[in-house]
Amino acid sequence: MVQIQESVDSVKNQKSAQEVQDAAVKASLQKIKHKFMVMSGKGGVGKTSTSVNLAIALSKKGFKVGIMDVDMHGPDVPRMLGLKGMLDLSENHKLNPMRYSENLSAVSIESLTQNKDDAIIWRGPIKFSAIRQFISDVEWGDLDYLIIDSPPGTGDEPLLVLDIAPDCE
Question: Average pLDDT for residues 20-26, to the nearest whole number?
Fold first, then answer.
């Protein structure tokens, strides 16, 4: 009987944690005016180049821009922006995106790994959690634009982003 109660308590705690994260995702997304996802069914066509150049151009026009690299298996945004190092924590215990300029910041799985050449071997549920955390646990602040760089195809990452942020263009 004790094991059943522990299982019930565990499910309640997981549900509560999910509700807290849902609220954090919603609060974060409300601070972002426009969300754009750059995607294509084919690899090597310039999705990351387009994402990075669009983000830089918008930031140079004075807009506050974030770029979120959701390509878990081939994150290139930090390299293209010349960003090095790891993400650090804000005073609110959220991740600070890496700063490219006053108006442009970025988040990528590469910025959370020690060795940038290590393979990330994740499946759906872990990817889903990471992408949700890129929104809920990152101190994006008020953004005019969030550019989302996706991997090739229509797999987990773009579908998860569209599930989380259905108003993404």
Answer: 82
